[in-house]
Amino acid sequence: MVKKKGKSPWLVICSILLGVFVGSLTGTTAEIFGVTFVSLYDLIGKLFINSLMLIVVPLVSSSIITGIARIGNDSAFGRLGAKIFGFYIGTSLLAILIGLFFVNLFNPGDSFTSSSTLLSPSAATEMRTDIDIQSHVSVFNVLLQIIPSNIVDAFHGQMLGLIFFSLIFGYALSKIEQQPQSILIGFWQGVFQTMLVMTDLIMRFLPIGVFCLVAKSFANSGLESLRSLALFSLTVVFALSFFLFIALPLLLKVVARVNPLTHFKAMAPALLTAFSTSSSSATLPVTIECVEKRAGVSNRICSLVVPLGTSINMSGSALYECVAAIFIAQVYGIELTLATQFSIVLLSLVTSIGIAGIPSASIVAIIVILKALGLPAEGVGLLFAVDRILDMCRTTVNVFSDSCCAVLVARTEGEKDVLVRTEFELA
Ligand code: ASP
395 in ligand 1 pocket by Cβ < 6 Å? Predict the structure, then answer.
């Protein structure tokens, strides 16, 4: 087995802090030998994210196929599915309501002054590029993604199509004759284990990748932009923290009867990766490894809950969408009735299911919500300056929420080995 170097959370935490400091210091203009520092951070950061994305397709397919092939004949299949979806919807709704509470409490849009620096030009350009490459979020689009007409399409980053194909493939595999079945299951198990070893290898570069990604974010957005949107940013961070540190741990304690602190420790590498990459899809290999190897959830549960959750359970994003939409309405002085706020809650829930686990995906969803309610869609420009930094926070919450779902389902399915290990390498 590959030794798990570079997984020390303390080293990664230092890289994050260093990234914040160095990125803010160098900004977008400082250069070396005619090359800007920010483009170097960008290059190395992209290489790191690409290497994680590279293993997502084989990892997700092998994880789901081996998991489903084993339980395809199991009568618990339907019950498991209902439990998983119940948890996804329940936690996302809870997150949105927490966001709704705090945005109404702090009213960040009311004290917002239009003289504030809204948009750092480089951050805005980068954000627009991110938005352009994404497809529109609509219910029809989401449904169409589930069944792609071609399996190769599913391999082009269409996670829902890939998950659907793998689920059906695994189920069909559980129905074939024993001899070819064991050969195929052995093959997919081999792919799965190989992908985990590859994840270990990539994770050795985590501190470098993290440093560059964080430095790039702070070089582009800077601490200044956080200041101009301080109350909005604080509202988001406060609401996300409440959900992350109070609501989810309570669920773990009361329903799953496990120690939330142990779970945080088990998930530390995945949370730090999510924070620095702002992409729950890129974090997926690390999430799977942490949930299975460190938290001790069985492959049977993890293979279903985590990949599916990465695609459709975006609690942190749902919360953010709700807070952002209401903030924009407040800035424009639009009075929101109870019915409109209720629509925002529902729309945040639905659109969060449709967005991809990539940086800035929520921006598209917020535009959809604003348009649907007749609110000024250009108001989304207000968020550009701080979106990347808040994205780091909400992606961490998305990943933790998926992992909590895996623990809850595993414990309620009677798994006793979950989080029995309490010591994880921290140094
Ligand atoms: N970056 C988030 C994720 O990957 C999605 C978003 O809210 O923009 O989970």
Answer: yes
Q: Whose CA is nearest to atom 3 of ligand 1?
A: 357
What is the C-alpha separation between 281 and 244, in angstroms, rounded?
Answer: 19
- Find out whether the beta carbon of 315 lies less than 6 Å from any atom of ligand 1: no
- Give me the residue spans of the domains in the chain: 10-412
**How far, in Å, CA of 153 to CA of 159, rounded?**
10
CA 261 to chain CA centroid, nearest Å:
20
Token pair for 90: 């329940």
- Residue 225 Cβ contacting ligand 1 at under 6 Å: no
**What are the mean pLDDT values of the chain's consecutive 10-residue runs (427 residues total)?**
50 85 87 88 89 84 82 73 91 97 92 50 45 46 74 71 85 90 93 88 86 85 68 95 98 95 94 92 93 92 89 93 94 86 91 83 86 82 82 96 96 88 59
CA of 11 to the centre of ligand 1 (A): 24
Question: Which is the closest atom of ligand 1 to the Cα of 283?
Answer: 4
Nearest to 361 by CA among 327, 405, 334, 395: 395
Task: State if residue 45 touches ligand 1 by the CB under 6 angstroms criterion.
Answer: no
pLDDT of residue 208: 92
Q: Is the CB of 330 under 6 A from ligand 1?
A: no
Angle at 291 between CA 287 and CA 293, to 5 degrees: 110
CA-based angle 112:385:100, to the nearest 5?
55
In this prediction, residue 132 carries a pLDDT of: 40
CA of residue 321 to ligand 1 center, whole Å: 11
Write the CA distances from 212 to 26, 29, 136, 269, integer angstroms. 12, 16, 30, 17
Closest ligand 1 atom to Cα of 394:
7
391 Cβ closer than 6 Å to some ligand 1 atom: yes
Domain 10-412 CATH assignment equals 2.60.120: no
**What does the longest C-alpha to C-alpha distance in the chain come to?**
71
